[in-house]
């Protein structure tokens, strides 16, 4: 439950819209179905999931906005580099 200035709201699980490049299906995934890897470069920063329709392993690049949305939504994150 989220409370703000005397208001309260029930917030359900976060769902992310995704699409499979192999079968072209569109669907929604929970945070638990996604994985985020943050690397030292743009090439090594990505999110991944398994397509629920065709079973393909999907890997897509993740820019700053995607990283913000996924981490804010509770997606498990793996850091591939050290922060100083």
Give a written overview of the molecule:
It contains one helix and eight strands, in the order βββββββαβ. With 84 residues, the chain is mostly beta strands. It is globular and about 35 Å long. β5 and β6 form a beta hairpin. The model has no long low-confidence stretch (mean pLDDT 88).
What percent strand? Answer: 35-45%
The Rg value, from CA coordinates, equals 15 Å
User: What profile does the largest beta sheet have?
Assistant: 4 strands, mixed
What is the general shape? globular
Distance between the ends: 35 Å
- Helix percentage range: 10-25%
- Largest sheet: spatial strand order: 7-6-5-8
Low-pLDDT runs of 5+ residues are: none
Q: What is the helix/strand order?
A: EEEEEEEHE
Briefly characterize the structure.
This protein is 11% helix and 40% strand. The protein has 84 residues and is mostly beta strands.
What tags apply to this protein structure?
84 residues; mainly beta; two-stranded antiparallel ribbon; 40% strand
Write the layout of secondary structure elements.
Layout: E1 2-4, E2 7-9, E3 15-19, E4 26-30, E5 35-38, E6 46-50, E7 57-61, H1 64-72, E8 76-79
Parallel strand pairs: 5-8
Antiparallel strand pairs: 1-2, 3-4, 5-6, 6-7
């Amino acid at each position: 439950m989220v409370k703000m200035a005397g208001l309260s709201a029930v917030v359900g699980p976060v769902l992310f819209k995704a699409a499979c490049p192999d079968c072209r299906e569109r669907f929604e995934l929970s945070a638990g179905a996604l994985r985020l890897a943050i690397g030292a470069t743009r090439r090594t920063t990505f999110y991944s999931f398994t397509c629920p329709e065709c079973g393909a392993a999907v890997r897509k690049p993740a820019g700053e906005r995607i990283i913000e949305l996924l981490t804010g939504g509770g997606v498990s994150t793996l850091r591939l580099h050290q922060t100083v």
